[in-house]
Amino acid sequence: MPELPEVETVARGLAKHVTGDVIESVWIGSKPEPLKSPAAEIASTLEGARIAAVGRVGKHIVIDLDRNSGTNPVPGHKRQRGKKPPSISRSQFIVHLGMTGRLLVAEPQTELVKHTHLVAKLASGRELRFVDPRRFGRLSVVREEFQAAGVEPLMMDFDVFKALFRKRNTPIKSALLNQKLLTGVGNIYADESLFRAKVRSRRRAGTLTRAELQRLYDSIKEVLAQAIEAGGSSVSDYVDAAGEPGFFQLHHRVYGREGQPCLVCGTPIKRIVIAGRSAHYCPKCQK
DNA sequence: ATACCGACCTGTCAGC
DNA sequence: TGCTGACAGGTCGGTA
């Protein structure tokens, strides 16, 4: 489900509702784990921690945690007379929503839905819940600052973007989906960006002209920004941290519009399969 | 090194 | 009313 705009929307919603709250206890389901870290390590890292901030890196939600660990001073620091030892330890809880993952803030009396895999009880009385029917989502905890492999589309400048595709023989659509190049663009926004840039998804990445790359660069930033503004795209079941859908699907020009007329020229939109993913485009507008 | 393809899961919907 | 097959916002590992 969620690509950069949806993840950003969830992260902003969580930031608003849980920043500063303290995790009192954690329940993790026994299903074959949607976990990258062992359940016990996730639980022990979360329990007792304070949520310092919530952000996004690529398609990952990053929850910054601190905890007082006065009894357990940071190694390597000498205790000085009259000063307390360093006593805050930091870690991060990383959530990838996969296709159908949801991270929700709920009141405790709200019924637990099927496929709930984690519930964190907060000091405020609310609960942070992770729900994921297909279990493609992933949960982990890290001690160091989490980093994504690829470039953040909203931060990159044109020269960095352009260099990603040089001499690449793969279809431009596949290159946009490759998270080691760009991090955060998924199937919807790849198709929508390519349409706005008037570039066909099957074009070999390395063959795009400078002008085409410039249009694609502009389109990606524009589409992502507009989608964030609209709260993301709700195609089947995406909802934000408060359970509310997004509205950018109303602005899709090609994604999910197979057979319908192109909004620019009226030609029916085509759907093809590239590397196992569907790709939607206008055969007349996109070259 | 690079690029495709199936596998991983569950749910939904169209067609018979 | 089933049943079957196609498809779904993502990523990984194996293979060519």
Structure description:
The protein has 287 residues and is an alpha+beta fold. It is 23% helix and 22% strand. It contains 6 helices and 10 strands. The strands form 3 sheets. A 4-stranded antiparallel β-sheet has the order 1-6-7-5, covered by helices on one side. Strands 2-3-4-8 form a 4-stranded antiparallel β-sheet, with helices on one face. It has a two-stranded antiparallel sheet with strand order 9-10. The longest helix is centred in the C-terminal third of the chain and has 20 residues, at 210-229. The protein is elongated. 37% of the residues are buried. The model has no long low-confidence stretch (mean pLDDT 91). The structure holds a DNA duplex (16 and 16 nucleotides).
Topology:
Layout: H1 4-18, E1 23-28, H2 39-46, E2 50-57, E3 60-68, E4 88-96, E5 102-106, E6 116-122, E7 127-131, E8 138-142, H3 158-164, H4 172-177, H5 187-197, H6 210-229, E9 270-274, E10 277-281
Helix pairs in contact: 1-6, 5-6
The protein binds a DNA duplex (16 and 16 nucleotides) through helix 5.
Instruction: Identify the strand order in the major beta sheet.
Output: 1-6-7-5
Shape descriptor reads: elongated
Radius of gyration: 21 Å
Let me know the average pLDDT: 91
The number of helical segments is 6
Unreliable sequence segments: none
Distance between the termini: 28 Å
Query: Main beta sheet: strand number and arrangement?
Result: 4 strands, antiparallel
Q: Count of DSSP E strands?
A: 10
Question: Which class of secondary structure composition applies to the elements?
Answer: alpha+beta
Helix content: 10-25%
User: What is the H/E order?
Assistant: HEHEEEEEEEHHHHEE
Strand content: 15-25%
